[in-house]
Write a structure and sequence with these properties.
- By secondary structure, the protein is α/β, with parallel strands linked by helices.
- It has one domain (12-140): Rossmann fold, CATH 3.40.50.1010.
- The chain is built from 7 helices and 5 strands.
- The protein has helices spanning 17-22, 27-36, 45-61, 65-77, 93-104, 115-123, 133-140, and strands at residues 12-15, 40-44, 78-81, 109-111, 129-131.
- The chain has a 5-stranded parallel sheet.
- Helix 6 (115-123) links the parallel strand 4 and strand 5.
Length: 144
């Protein structure tokens, strides 16, 4: 994969589980995860439980050492934040957890490809930006 230029600032970022999962297939989600290595990552504790469950299923199916190592590394890099009952602000209740983490941890970006959460950026004026993986990569590369 072509090396992406690294920004001077370390951003505070929340990355959605679907972006993380999709990163194994390449494309913009993989570029997001490559960029994210040099930034501070946050996620709701629910994400950790979901990824750990996924890893257990993968381990039981055979030798997927590279995949297990990849997700283990991601789990290690993320600061997990326990959110019990977030305020309902989006169409999808699961997205409320990501938004709550973004607000609580005063992040710069929430990276998400879900239309429900992306629709929130039109009606909310939060201190962080909600970007698709493509928008985030293009911003880092200076194309936006």
């Amino acid at each position: 994969m072509k090396s992406l230029k690294k920004p001077k600032k370390r951003y505070r970022i929340v990355i959605d589980a679907n972006v993380i999962a999709s990163s194994i297939f390449g494309g913009y989600p993989a570029k997001v995860m490559e960029i994210a290595k040099s930034h501070i990552l946050f996620a709701p504790t629910r994400l950790k439980k979901g990824l750990e469950t996924f890893l257990e299923k993968v381990r039981k199916r055979g030798d997927f050492t590279e995949l297990v190592n990849y997700f283990s590394y991601i789990l290690y890099r993320i600061k997990f934040i326990n959110i019990e009952d977030p305020k309902h602000v989006s169409r999808d209740r699961a997205d409320d957890f990501y938004i709550a983490v973004a607000l609580q941890e005063n992040v710069d970006f929430l990276i998400n490809g879900d239309k429900d959460i992306l629709s929130c950026r039109e009606i909310r004026n939060w201190s962080f930006k909600i970007l698709t993986p493509k928008e985030f990569v293009e911003m880092i590369e200076g194309k936006l």
